[in-house]
Amino acid sequence: MQGIRIIRCSLSRFLIIARIHLSLSPFEPAHFANPTVERPLSSKFSIGFSSFSTSSHETPTTPKNLKEPEECCSDNDDNDSDMDKDDDDDVDVRGLNLSDDGLIQDAKTIVNMLQESSDNRVEMKNKIEQCGVKVSQELVLEVLSRVRNDWEAAFTFFLWAGRQPGYAHSVREYHSMISILGKMRKFDTAWALIDEMRGVKTGVSLVTPQTLLIMIRKYCAVHDVGRAINTFYAYKKFKFDKGIEDFQSLLSALCRYKNVQDAEHLMYCNKAVFPPNTKSFNIVLNGWCNLIGSPREAERVWREMSKRGFDMMLCHMQVCCLAIRRQVVFIEF
């Protein structure tokens, strides 16, 4: 393509960020022969608590009441290589930088109880029932943050805290617990919490678009693209409007966990509803370039962008030029 030079250098580790000015002009999206698009959720979608594998694209079934961890559904416990990246999502599970010494001590007390009884869930439950600690939002967030890698301990504590007089979980506590469950692939249990958040009993729903985005990211982390897409379509079930920014959040989640080809196909297949713009292309381009590390695919996407009539002078964009296999690919104008 005119205006593009590819320079390869033998460097082990090197990263060049080229800032290039672009502007989006009207364009006609291309067609993909075999788009990777899962069917949307049916109008009868219901949040599920039954067991299902991450390879299935079926919608969860009607939930049962939340149970203690030892009675919960048995989701796949296998670890995934990309799950390490999920630590970035722990922003949903962080504490509040406590300054109250009494609160800090209470958190330590509960965490110690949970850890000491990690092999005996009945004993764990009995201990926290008798701890005499006053529950607050700050305490719940802090404890969840400290035990976020032990979903059973976190969930046991979460259920106990929710039953304490004078306290009710807010959106943030629910998000923290859902994030922990999703990270450990306890998706059925996470959906049961979301169903609880819908406020069937209280009439007030705590579910937000961020709630569903957490689930989308967790599905993407285990490469369950079908359910990530279905969760995006569930926005309508929760009476949320799906805008271009929500769609781009889905693309970002897919690319973040190396489902870049699926993200690119999805972008083109939804061209009528969410016309691809500069940001959408940037997400896919960054996925190929920085996350997959494929200069060839990155160049292909870049050529497609140029062919569609982007103005190279006005709109700001970052193009990655990265080291891969001891080579640096530098896209220059």
Automatic annotation (TrEMBL):
GO terms, biological process: RNA splicing
Coiled-coil intervals: none
Keywords (A to Z) from UniProt: Repeat
Pfam families from the UniProt entry: PPR
PPR repeat positions: 277-312
Region (Disordered): 52-91
Acidic residues bias: start-end ranges: 71-91
UniProt name for this protein: Pentatricopeptide repeat-containing protein
Organism: Dovyalis caffra
Organism ancestry: Eukaryota, Viridiplantae, Streptophyta, Embryophyta, Tracheophyta
